[in-house]
Amino acid sequence: MKTYHIELQRLKAAKQGNGLVEFAIDAHLAPQSADGDSAPTSVLSMTEANARVLMTLLKTQLSDVDKRKARSQR
């Protein structure tokens, strides 16, 4: 399994459709060597400001999904 260090630099947009939520981002991607002690894991890092924007975009997109569900599924 390949592991990466992903540095999120900017969130540009979010959209959802067909059961997917997609984000347009600027990111720096670099291979990461796995330590022998831990399981291989990719790491996503971002500033606190970007994390807050991501949370806001996720909440907005998920509320849009909930609005489209029938009342019996809410």
Short description:
The chain is α+β, with helices and mostly antiparallel strands. The protein has one helix at residues 48-68; strands at 4-17, 20-31, 43-45.
Largest sheet: 3 strands, mixed
Shape: elongated
Structural class: alpha+beta
Order of helical and strand elements: EEEH
Distance between the termini: 38 Å
Rg on CA atoms, Å = 16 Å
Notes on the protein architecture:
- The chain has one helix at residues 48-68; strands spanning 4-17, 20-31, 43-45.
- A 3-stranded mixed beta sheet has the order 2-1-3.
- It is an alpha+beta fold and 74 residues long.
- The chain starts with a strand and ends in a 6-residue tail after the last helix.
Please specify the SSE layout and strand pairing.
Blueprint: E1 4-17, E2 20-31, E3 43-45, H1 48-68
Using brief descriptors, characterize the structure shown.
74 residues; alpha+beta; 3-stranded mixed beta sheet; 1 helix; 28% helix
